[in-house]
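Narrative progress, year one. The postdoctoral researcher (J.K.) led the effort to move from monomer predictions toward full complexes, under supervision of the PI. The following entry was the first complex the group processed end to end, covering 1164 residues in total.
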Amino acid sequence: MEEVKQPNIVQEAPHFDVEKERKRQKVGKILKNVFVYTFLTFCAILAFLPFYWMIISSLKTEAEYRQPKLTLFPETIMWKNYEVVLTQASTSGASFAQLLVNTLLVGGVSTILGVVITILTAYALARMNFHGKNLLFTIMLGTMMIPGEMYTLTNYITATQLNWRDTYTILIVPFLVSVYYTYLLRNNFMQIPNSLYQSAKVDGLSDMGYLVKVMVPLTAPTLISITLLKFIGSWNSYIWPQLINNQRWQMITNWVTKGFNDNKGLLGPASSEPLTTLKMAAVCMVSLPLFILFIFCRKYIMRGVSKSGTKG
Amino acid sequence: MANPENKNFFAKIGEKCKALWESFLALFKKKEAQEVAAETQSGEVFVGKELTAKEKFLRFLKAEQGWLFVTPALILLAVFTFYPIVNAFIRAFQENYNPLSPTKYTGIGFENFVRVLKGDTGTGGATFLQCLVNTTIFTFVSVPLSTLLALLISVALNSIKALQKAYQTILFLPYLTNSLAMGAVFATFFTIVGTKNSTDTVGLVNIALGWFGIEPIDWMKGGKGFVWTIGQIRIPWTKYVVVIVYEIWSGLPFKILILFSALQSVNKQYYDAAKIDGASKSKTLWKITTPLIMPMISYLLITGIMGGMKQYTSIVGLFGEQMGIDYDMGTMVGYIYRYISNGQMGYAFAGSLLLFVIIMIFTVINLQASKKKVTY
Amino acid sequence: MKKILTKITVLVLAICLSGAVSLFAGCGGGGQIDYEHTIIFYTSQGDNLVSVTQNAINAFEAKYPGWKVEHTQPGGYDEVKDKIVSDLQVQTQPDLAYCYPDHVAQYLQTGKVVDLNKYLDSTDTAKWTVTNEDGTTQEVDTGEVIGYTEAELSDFVSRYFEEGIATNFTGYDTYGYAADAMLTLPFVKSTELMYYNADALKACGLQPATTWDELWAQCDTIKKRFPTATPLGYDSEANWFITMCEQNGWGYTSIDPNNHYLFNGPEQAAWLAELSEYYEKGYFTTQEDYGAYTSALFTKGVEDGGLVYCIGSSGGASHQDPGDVFRWGVAPVPGSVLADGTVNKSVISQGPSLVMLTGGNNVSNPTEKEIMTFMFIKELLDPQFQASFSTASGYNAARLSADEVPAFQEFIESGTIVATAVKTGLTMREDFFVSPAFNGSSTARLQVGNVIVYAMRGEKTPEQALADAYKNCGGK
């Protein structure tokens, strides 16, 4: 039986392959492509939908947002929603605009100081020799394994005892040192050949001079990543300001959880009813800067994040 | 972790923990040693010549000037990181610690832990156990699902040529989001606005479900018939669905990024070999692609789970600062912060130590897995 | 691409730099406060009330030259408490602050709360010493008597006044206070009122309900006439529960440390079961259910799915004003018909009291400062000022004679919703009650509020909800 079948297959195979199989493959390929593209398109729509919804909702009137019939584009574009959000004020005299200023300020200062400290520390750990360096570095790495919530508690008490509550200082100082970024930059510094250091020494450059004139320019991409991630981290900080400061001294995300209303009557009769459209406008103001930053600086942000496995 | 080799893995954690820690240290010490060796080879060498005390001191200063560079960081770390860690271990065991009269704690012992675990803290809100269940379910449902979905998307993305870049860009967009802000957006998808007697809008999800003839559900509130109760643990499943959907959405881009670049880096030779062997497409996927990117998948699962166990802001974004009614959507981190705000610091410290232990377990698993990845 | 990146980096750095500059610029400003002669006063007042309070401050500063009042608003009531708790740990506590009883229960632990009895009936005159430039000291005697006369003391609304007595605060004795110590003085109080849509009631041919039975009986008629409207909105679930317990004598909490929590009873469960039924029928909504203050729903009008009755604080009267949408009315909260046929119309009374804290900012002469703080309290409790504050806020004054102030008389007849709310509040003085304060009383409040939410949505049976709340409060 098998001896008979064997030549049969050999004989028929080329005929079968060339004609039907090719056709079958072609149909299969088209089907596969249709399936794959449909799937990807569906996923892409779902990925983008929340952003789209956020933007159009922030530009709708509350009445349009609430009507049972869906509209995919605002009937009248309400830029005024943004104005109402920015002038929104609380009893403690804080306004949403104030929090925006706080966020930029705290973000700016903590980024600059943080990057400077990171550079100094990383350089010392990478290039300089001093007693106890290894021990220090090991302890620093060890702290990375401990969840931040454990420090927060004591820092809360410390901040109270230092009488630093309701200040910018307390939002900045505890987060200046990031062990992870120090580690990242140290590794980067160590990749720079030692011969450069030698020739710099011959040229009479001090450690500080070498750091500023050689190391920093050479590791610029990593430094940009660190700067961006630090800033994004500040921008997104919610827990600590919520815990430690009153509303006047909080950050922009702290207000997003609260309701926004039109109590000044800028959109219609004054009311304390929370309006979803206003909340979406606030959400846009928190999200879109990140979104734009991501589009332009994707490479740098991803470089930093993909290594840590956590987001900003 | 279904690998049969790992059957006794959890039993061995205790002994392996120490070994891992040592290898962890050795890894850095080795690099360090190489570095030091390189330095000394090329460094200045002082020969002969007796040094005066002043010179000796200057030399000491020069040798130790590294400390100058690390001082700012060291001071900050000492005050805001090292001290708090030590302090947390002490305070967690002080009973009835009250910041208003810090020296007047009533004793040292495990009472804080017992009360936290028994849910007997004298304040309402989700108990630690409820928070642990919430967090665990959110994490262990959303992380595998989003990893699987990310794998499917990455494979699909890898298999197309036209428009690949465009799809890639759109799918990466939610990568850098503010979890609080986007949580607020997701909340609107599920919220019914209005009263029982006059509904304004039922929310996007209910509208979509309406196309399939499903009656609107008040996802964000739950209510009669939407709560499962197991002993003291309540599972308002509609709210769980909201959290899980959001977690999957926000977790996807990072996972796609990792898996897609892993797929792209898989050597083409393997596929050519497979083609020659006449393996079918699906066979190629499961027999070649999957094993090759398995380390990446386990990495994603573990980091995803570790991140998930610490989630907090996404829930606040969805359900507000009260995390549902009376914190019923509370997470472990949320539990800790609630007790800080209450001023019941002892329970907050005990909770944070418990969280530390849980995170530690996953860290050990992570180290174990990354060790495997290296030897792969 | 590279160029864009460089630009962005420059931009980010520029933002950072400008941030840094403005931070340090911001730090420089602000004059130093002379704590020796400045009374620090924390409140949670909004902008409009801050300007009213400024009148009292001006009067005080004019009367006692050299003394100043620094009025700070850290935020809402909870923020004020949080700030004071953290201040107390570093001795920067204010001299005077808005307080709620359960906040004071917390401050007591530090022993910084001043027993006001020593000033309430003091016959001394207020004096202080100033140090001249040459180093000599000189005493300034204002001639003003510190304490109140008997007549003035009886001018306080007695129910409000009694709230400050130490026995209302558990643990007062462990922190060294006498049983009759006066820990707080009432400032202004709000009560709950029932605002109603007069047009809608008229259209249904109904009169404003005076008892709960009447109100529930009207719901069906209202729903038939206005299917999209909701008959009742009750803002505060917790107040509803506490009020019902008080009206029916069911028991809510007690001051007895061995038996704080009394709310876990069968009568409460039966009432909750009833509520759940009404909720299913769409008879009412609450703040948690609606997702906002129900006043926002009330002002919409019945045609747009609004409320017919809205029960909320008299302090929030201005938010209940629907403008031209419909005609409104204000009535007392419905009462409960008791077994003997009488109607109990008890209604909860809440609002800020004043607590004096001593030893803040390490002043050299705390007693002198306490006296001057007390003199400032007297300005705040002056009938004229109380009347003007009541006029602006809708809160009820703590002094009976505030009623007689001509401007106030004129105001309450002015017919605005705030005026009508104040006027209605005056008629309810005999029905006011306050719930006891102890460590844990605020937990009990939150828990009973949640009980209503759980029960009405049917997530828990009333019995289960009450039992869970009881357990959460630490009851065994």
